[in-house]
Amino acid sequence: MSSADAADDHGHDHPKFLQHQFDTPAQQFEAAKIGMWAFLGQELLFFSGLFVAYGIFRSWYPEMFSMASHQLNRPMGAANTIVLLFSSLTAALAVRSAQTGNKAATSRFLLITIGCAFIFLIVKYFEYVHKFEAGLLPAHYFHPHADHLVPGTTIPENGGSFFAIYFMMTGVHGIHVLVGIGVMIWIWRRNERGDFSAKYFTPVDLVALYWHLVDLVWIYLFPLLYLID
Amino acid sequence: MSHPEHVAPDQEHEGQYDVHTHISSVGFYVFILTTLMILTLLTVGVSYIHLGRLNLVVAVVIASIKASLVITFFMHLKYDNKFNAMILVVSLLFIGVFFAYVMNDTEHRAEIDNDQGGRISGSTGAAAPGGMEHHVVAPAGSAPAAGDHAAPAGDHAAPAPAPAPAPHH
User: How far A132 CA sits from the closest chain B CA (Å)?
Assistant: First the structure.
């Protein structure tokens, strides 16, 4: 991508950001957006496998899902939901700042979004540590310790199925958060370098789209995993 | 290297080929976030009310409203090329197909009924045609895989007076 920025050596008055294969900035922008949406569609289909697994097992073992869900920490899940929703706002505002050519604000909002992503992972870390200590682990690693469970609760022997799904869904989502942090740091550095302007902000737009998808998946994960009656 | 085919946007038409996007106001974005937060509180609140199976429906409906707000406004799909919206809708459609076919199988897969020696539907206890052959009809109390499927499926639905499968196959 960045190599094309410097490759405008053939005498036309192309803007630096316009790559050779495109006629106009608008065409380049539309192409990038379609590509990103195709990727996001793929992401949804990719996650849908986990959601279908969730549907099958919840329908087979509704009581077990309810009891296992009570072992999750609702305040932490709710806090992470708020953090991710807020970071979606700051990602949208980063795009808005880029659209209006406000480089300093774009950097600021990207950094706030990255900060929220770290907070999310830190909260998730404490949740995971508790699950490890309580032996609430996937499938045959499942060996719950009565003294680590939420007081007054029990968990059935097949609770490992719930935690297999819990760790797969939140784990794959967490990997997406990690990737998001990496990409946002890259885009933040490019913004600092002055790559973007009101005429060219596509990468900021695309990384925000990705971040909103991470938020979207969590919007479903939170009630489905933490809030089972 | 020259590109004779490529017509660079010339000076007098500058702007004509530029990217034009809708720019929402900061206030509007904050309003969307506020709505999302209120819906989050709502979904937490509703989870403490016992509605039976309706709890899941309510949770998914609220989550979908939140998702729609994020997609429509934060992701600008409302102002985007409609082709992008089509990609999303088609993806969701295929997720629906995926769910429908898989759940149709797993919900209505027949179990072997020990007493009758025939196939019965795990969720209703009614006689079921076809279904998967189980390799072993396990004796009572020693069938973790097959037995576990039948027992909870029987007691979560339990609408019909039909004989439920024995608790331990």
Answer: 25
